[in-house]
From TrEMBL:
Signal peptide: none annotated. CDD domains: ABC_6TM_exporters. Keywords: ATP-binding, Cell membrane, Membrane, Nucleotide-binding, Transmembrane, Transmembrane helix, Transport. This is ABC transporter ATP-binding protein. Residues 368-602 form the ABC transporter domain. The keyword Transport applies. Its main location: membrane. It comes from the Bacteria. One of its GO terms (cellular component) is plasma membrane. It is a multi-pass membrane protein. The chain crosses the membrane at residues 47-68, 88-108, 170-187, 193-210, 278-297. The keyword Nucleus does not apply. One of its GO terms (molecular function) is ABC-type oligopeptide transporter activity.
Length: 614
């Protein structure tokens, strides 16, 4: 990246890992479990018919749970003592019928909850991705790509288990627990109250372990994000790794990250291993109460044996929700930790926002003016200070200077990727802050040395500049960029797949496709940031000729280190440390024997020496 690259993009420990608003210092309030369920409901209510049907199934399941214990009680207290052989067939049919009905209802409820869960996940993931698309460039400078990918894929995916099955279990258990508790109180309130005395202990234990599990699950998910980030970096940079023979080094780095993930998972398992036996012990305390006190009541004649057996069966049904909840709490806390990470992104506000009264920028001539502009990347020294610059409409303006002089920063300020700290930038008299971003950026075409091509065909990548362009317009743009010849040489022509990031193309070919994409957009303002840096001399000459025709009547900003590419510019500005040292045409700057002349002499003697050596 020429000019001044934002240095905050490099990973530093703790960045993007919950430190306020992704490293900006602003505290983000942790998302609550209640907030998580409220947002799930907000998305789920759009499929309320499925929810209503699922709830009906849950109520029916809870009611059917009563049948088998009642059949057991009736068999022990009535059928066996009365030797009612004719009733046995009905008892068996009742048990089997209840089992079949329960199976059907559980199938329906599970299928419905899966549909609801997937619908919610679909909306969650799309909302998160859409919000990320609307955040400004500075947000992506501050955060690691792998971490953001993990939030969209892994963290949203974690919610699936909670929504699809755990919530179904929660609903079922809630109705079952309530109905059975009321019935048991009606059978014998003394025995039921003794039993329920163990439940406050279960709740306290759950709250104590829940907080620790949530913290541990967050560490697991952060370590997963770290692994994902390292994996993304290493796979995209595999050629660099192999060229420096760093395979073992990268394997060790990856191993260290996976070890942290392993340790975090072990900590979660240990908490779960301690929590579940405590809950099971409290459940056995309840069973002991029923056996001892129930037997005492039976021996006194206050309760039948069948009632005790039914009571024990209901006790198991009453304890099942507690057992389930002890397992569901893991899913809830894991989901809550994932939800926190998702909401950290959703609660992040873009620094670059449109005013409420922003207007649509009309078609521009391209007269751009910087007035007293100060700019600084977060936490770094000033890049521009009291900077003034004028780009005349319809003219080619070039910026040259040492690396870090602010050239690319200027290019990034024009489409409002960043806002200056102070001062103003106008286009045809319109302040950038007063116009709608879309209407501004659709009139600007950018060709950078950092070539971005998407996995697809050559034609699709060129058409990215104008989705409605015809095949003839795509071909014309490719010809203007001197790309049609090599494209036509491929067996599939414009339908040739380029691979991930254009891996199947040479650097010069990728650059010409990116230039064709900008040409197809037909913008009023064109920014060329080292646009011909990857081209050979012959291709560069063809490109310059094509651009000379294309740029007529348009405003063009050219950033270049190779001075041969800007000699025909209408005006050249020489920058150092964010200030303009000198300006003029190529010939004027050579005559004054200043900084431009020094840069020119440094380049062309080397070129001549290289040509002589060849």
């Amino acid at each position: 990246m020429s000019g001044n690259a934002n240095p905050t993009g490099a990973y530093r420990p703790g960045r993007g890992m919950g430190m306020g608003r992704f490293g900006t210092g602003e505290k983000v309030k942790p998302a609550s479990v209640y907030g998580m369920f409220a947002r799930i409901y907000q998305h789920a209510r759009q499929v309320w018919r499925a929810i209503a049907l699922a709830v009906i199934c849950v109520i029916c399941v809870s009611l059917l749970e009563f049948i088998v214990p009642q059949l057991t009680r009736y068999t022990i207290d009535q059928v066996i003592p009365g030797k009612q052989y004719d009733k046995l067939i009905y008892i068996g049919a009742g048990v089997l019928g209840s089992a079949l009905a329960l199976g059907l209802l559980r199938y329906l409820s599970t299928s419905l909850m899966a549909t609801i869960g997937q619908t919610v996940l679909y909306k969650f993931r799309n909302d998160l991705y859409r919000h990320m698309q609307n955040l400004d460039i500075a947000f992506f400078d501050r955060n690691r790509t792998g971490d953001l990918m993990s939030r969209v894929t892994n963290d949203v995916g974690i919610l699936q288990q909670l929504i699809s099955s755990s919530m179904m279990q929660l609903f079922t258990d809630f109705f079952t627990f309530t109905a059975i508790a009321v019935y048991m109180l009606w059978i014998d309130w003394r025995l039921t109250l003794l039993l329920l005395a163990t439940f406050p202990l279960m709740i306290m234990t759950t709250r104590l372990f829940g907080k620790r599990m949530r913290s541990s699950f967050r560490k697991v998910q952060e370590s997963v994000a770290d692994v994902s980030d390292h994996l993304q970096n290493s796979l995209t940079g595999i050629r660099l790794i192999k060229s420096f023979t760093k395979e073992e080094y990268e394997s060790e780095r990856f191993s260290e990250r996976t070890r942290i993930n392993m340790d975090a998972n072990i900590q979660v398992v240990r908490l779960r291993a301690a929590y579940e036996p405590i809950i099971d012990f409290l459940n056995f305390v309840g069973l002991a109460i029923v056996l001892v006190f129930g037997a005492w009541l039976a021996m006194r004649g206050d309760m039948s044996v069948g009632t005790i057996v039914a009571f024990i069966a209901y006790l198991r049904l009453l304890q099942n929700p507690i057992r389930h909840f002890s397992r569901i709490i893991n899913s809830v806390q894991q989901s809550a930790a994932a939800y926190e990470r998702i909401m950290e992104v959703m609660n992040t506000k873009a620094d670059i926002v449109e005013k409420a009264d922003a207007v649509v920028l009309p078609p521009v001539r391209g007269h751009i003016v910087f007035r007293d502009v100060d700019f600084v990347y977060s936490g770094d020294a000033k890049v521009l200070s009291g900077f003034n610059l004028e780009l005349e409409a319809g003219r080619i303006t070039a910026l040259v200077g040492s690396s870090g002089s602010g050239k690319t920063t200027i290019a990034h300020l024009i489409p409002r990727f960043y806002d200056p700290k102070s001062g103003d930038i106008t286009i045809d008299g319109h302040s950038l802050k007063d116009v709608k971003l879309e209407s501004l950026r659709e009139q600007i075409g950018i060709v950078s040395q950092d070539i971005v091509l998407f996995n697809g065909t050559i034609g699709e990548n060129i058409r990215y500049g104008n989705a409605n362009a015809s095949d003839e317009e795509v071909i014309a743009a490719a010809r203007a960029a001197n790309a049609d010849t090599f494209i036509s040489a491929f067996p599939d022509g414009y339908e040739t797949g380029i691979g991930e990031r254009g891996v199947k193309l040479s650097g010069g070919q990728k650059q010409r496709i990116s230039i064709a994409r900008a040409i197809l957009k037909n913008p009023r303002i064109i920014i060329l940031d080292e646009a011909t840096a990857s081209l050979d001399s012959e291709s560069e000459q063809h490109i310059q000729e094509a651009l000379a025709v294309l740029l007529k009547g348009r405003t063009c900003l050219v950033i270049a280190h190779r001075l041969s590419t800007i000699q025909q510019a209408d005006r050249i500005y020489v920058l150092e440390q964010g200030r303009i040292l000198e300006s003029g045409t190529h010939e004027e700057l050579l005559r004054i024997q200043g900084r431009y002349s020094q840069l020119y002499e440094l380049q062309f003697p080397q070129a001549e020496a290289g040509a002589g050596a060849g």
